[in-house]
Amino acid sequence: MSEVRVSVPHALPIPVAIEKVKAFEEMMAKFAVSCEWNGNHAKLKGAAASGSIEMTDSAAIIVVKLGLFAKAAGVEPERLAGSIKKRLEAAFAS
């Protein structure tokens, strides 16, 4: 199982940063991956991938574990990491 780990810095209050991450959640929903928040931590669950989001005072840390379905669909870990980073940087900048 491939693992993608991305840390994106931010200077936002944690509740605001969590709201900004909603765009990332929408992207994951396209791949049938749900996101369940509990405080500053979220679990990602789905057939193609699982993982977590941890929101700290200074960064969002995303870990995505690609399952067999993701590999079969041709998901490239490096490309996914770049996409996650780009989307979160844009979300935190807006």
Report a brief summary of the structure.
The chain is built from four helices and five strands, in the order E-H-H-E-E-E-E-H-H. The protein is an alpha+beta fold and 94 residues long.
Our estimate of the beta-strand percent is: 35-45%
In whole angstroms, the N-to-C terminal distance is 34 Å
Most strands sheet: 5 strands, antiparallel
Name the poorly predicted regions.
none
Instruction: Please state how the strands of the largest beta sheet are arranged side by side.
Output: 1-5-4-3-2
Dominant shape: globular
In angstroms, what is the radius of gyration? 12 Å
> Class by helix and strand content?
alpha+beta
Number of helices: 4
Residue share in helix: 25-40%
What is the number of E strands? 5
Q: What do the pLDDT scores average to?
A: 88
Output the helix-strand order. EHHEEEEHH
The overall number of domains is 1
What does this structure look like?
- The model has no long low-confidence stretch (mean pLDDT 88).
- By secondary structure, the chain is an alpha+beta fold.
- Strands 1-5-4-3-2 form a 5-stranded antiparallel beta sheet.
- It is built from 4 helices and 5 strands; from the N terminus they run βααββββαα.
- It has one domain (13-93).
- It is 39% helix and 37% strand.
